[in-house]
From TrEMBL:
GO terms for cellular component: membrane
Protein name (database record): Amino acid transporter
Residue span, Amino acid permease/ SLC12A domain: 23-398
Lipid bilayer topology: Multi-pass membrane protein
UniProt cross-references to PANTHER family, sorted A to Z: AMINO ACID PERMEASE (PTHR42770:SF16), AMINO ACID TRANSPORTER-RELATED (PTHR42770)
Zinc is among the record's keywords: no
Transmembrane segments: 35-61, 95-116, 136-156, 163-184, 204-222, 243-263, 291-310, 346-367, 373-400, 412-429, 449-470
Amino acid sequence: MAVNGTAAAGHGLRRDAVGLREVLFQSMTDMAPGAAIAASIPAGVAFAGGALPLAVLFALVASLFTAWSVSQLAGEIPAAGSLATYVARGIHPAAGFLVAWAYVMVGWLVAPLVLLQLGFTTAATLNTEFGWPADLWWPWSVLGILIVSAVGFFGVRASARMGTILGIFEIAVFAIMAVLLVIHAGEHNTLSVFTTKYTPDGQYHGLSGVIAGSVFTTLAFLGFESAAPLAEEARNPRRTVQLAVLLSTLIIGALYVFTTYAIDVAFGPAGFSRFTTGTGSASWQGVARDLYGLFWVLVFFAIINSTLANSNAGVNVASRTSFAMGRIHAFPPQFARVGERHRSPVIAIATGSVISLAVMLGLGFGYDPTTAFGMIGTALVILLVAIYLVVNVACIGYFARRGRGFNPISHLLVPLIGIAAFLPAWLAGAGIKTPGLSFITPLTSPLSYMGPAAAIWMILGVLYLGYLYLRHPQRVVDVGLVHLDAEPVDGPADAKRS
């Protein structure tokens, strides 16, 4: 593996530290099934109404095709740089660098997204049960940041084990409740929720509502690829990462479709547009309280567990990508510094924690925690779905360039379908009105602010990329060279050439 700095000195990430179970739950918990079922997916209700299960199905199909492309590349290029390295090899190193730039921001935004939910869910629940102030959401969110940062410092084994334990609990709780809801619905079970019949009247009626709702159901799937950054710490990384990416998408996707269907038919699809992400009667927690008494406590803890597990997975993604870019000096080399005992990228974790805290508190107090949740979620969809689109292109490019082993279905047709399936949700989230595609309706403010915000971040990345090309061009080239199969070097390649 080509490395430099501290990594070259034998202080890189810990090899063979985790197996398939831990890597699988890295992807599964990064999708935050409990938090997604309770908040991310219901955030699309205002647009899709009772057709929300159809919006979930759209997101699942898109995610499966892209997961296949990611798995194909993961089997060829095991690297902590993951998606950035794939794109650098499949398209161009400059494109790989910009993917790393966007992907690190994605990791930094995951924690504030779900920890805002931790804050407003805990505050609302304590207000209902004990009369605590409903606006004291921020202490719980800050506590969450401190917990996941501390776990990250203890290394990938500790964070992966935490994710596995929390993930099993949240999945079990919502799966059991969904079964109970389907039984409760009885004769009201209907497949018509997988059509546009129950979309609300107005601007987002029909397919427009389903597409707009799919921005938030897509948010629930984001992270299925996050097993990839653990490739250099996993045992048998080619097989392990491939299986983890595909299985996590299938398992959690099936859970999303089933649970969303269950709550829809049990609540009533005609009035489902009133369903919320909060803790009142028209919410997962509220329905659990009304129908099953103290079962709401398990739902509450499943949501809390999910927010912690998801933010923990986000820390892993951002820190490993930063580490990979730092060791080739494409990002500040301090990001490649790892702790002596636990071999975790301590500077990358600390930096990400500070940025996540600033985003969380800035938007949470600037608007309110639920609005901030929607804004950050929209930004994540814009950035990460754009990365998925590019990765599909990289899959085509990598295998076409390699020549041998090119499969027209796996390496051309599937990536093209992945692009077509994700494009509508990305256009809606980015606020791009497309001629001839009248069913794509951009989101309203303040969610619409996230398109320009994401564009500004990427413009900064382009400017930094220009600087690297002028001063240290080899660092950009190295984005595609740092992986387990690369020949080792003793230090920064551009330093050798100076």
